[in-house]
Amino acid sequence: MTSTFTAGEEKWRARLGTLRQVVRQHLVSRQLAGHLADRPGQRILDLGCGQGSQLLVLARRGHLVTGLDSSAALLAGLGSSLRAEPPEVHDRVRLVQGDALRAAELFEPEGFDAVLCHGVLMYLPDPGPLLDAMAAVTVRGGLVSLLVRNGDALAMRPGLAGDWLAAKAAFDGDSYVNRIGVQARADRLGGLTAALAARELAVQAWYGVRVFTDQAPDDAPVPGDGQLTLILECEERAGRTDPYRGVAALLHIIAQRGSSFGDAWPE
């Protein structure tokens, strides 16, 4: 898989415990929980599982989770985290090192009840092949969870920072240099919805992620529990409410394979 992420991986790892990253993981976990039933345990594939934030949450909930990542360093760190978990959690997880684009070769067709792909599409010049692979390994009626950079709000960050040349360019483009210093790509909701529909993946819900805290400094620490709870309450409400969710830095999209297209745009 030709990805630009590798160049910024070390810097990304160094920021995992910062406010922006913690808010992202908490929000995605809460949003996903509303769509994924706990019983019986679902078979879940996390493509580009990274440090395993979502994988660990889902394994603790009783799901059988496979984590796929191309980075040996990230998988090693995740392995250490798993060894600290109770055996019943650890035993529900399988880690595989490999290219996400090879998911259809590495796993059986329609082998998973849900497939997660969070923060991966933005590092690929063409999302199509990965969307194909995701659809192939998702069971009929199963869910796909995508977290992408919001192309419809690409001008927000540079505009609020006073970088007017970058803001102007962002209105008509989908390419940008992200906070770990690598070239990345954004997806627009309409275009991604159409691309998913072409693969029989109907959007059931979508949320904004980091409406407010995207402007926090890269190294902003996580505040005390009371303040963090308040931040998450505000972010969660904004992420499901118009017009706020439309200007979020990230979009979290939930789609269902082989479902009716009539409910693709929920209130």
Helix/strand layout:
Layout: H1 9-14, H2 19-33, E1 43-47, H3 53-60, E2 64-69, H4 72-83, H5 87-90, E3 93-97, H6 103-106, E4 112-118, H7 128-137, E5 138-149, H8 156-160, H9 164-170, E6 175-177, E7 183-185, H10 189-197, E8 201-209, H11 225-239, E9 250-257
Parallel strand pairs: 1-2, 1-4, 2-3, 4-5
Antiparallel strand pairs: 5-9, 6-7, 8-9
Strand percentage lies at 15-25%
Please state the second-level CATH architecture: 3-Layer(aba) Sandwich
Structural class computed from helices and strand pairing: alpha/beta
List segments where confidence is low: pLDDT < 50 over at least 5 consecutive residues.
260-267
Q: Compute the average pLDDT.
A: 92
Describe the protein in words.
36% of the residues lie in helices and 22% in strands. A hairpin with a 5-residue loop joins β6 (175-177) and β7 (183-185). The N and C termini lie far apart (36 Å). It has a single domain, classed as Vaccinia Virus protein VP39 (Rossmann fold), CATH 3.40.50. It is globular. The strands form two sheets. It has a seven-stranded mixed beta sheet, sandwiched between helices. With 267 residues, it is α/β, with parallel strands linked by helices. The chain has helices at residues 9-14, 19-33, 53-60, 72-83, 87-90, 103-106, 128-137, 156-160, 164-170, 189-197, 225-239; strands spanning 43-47, 64-69, 93-97, 112-118, 138-149, 175-177, 183-185, 201-209, 250-257. The longest helix has 15 residues, at 19-33.
Which structural traits does this protein have?
alpha/beta, globular, 267 residues, 36% helix, 22% strand
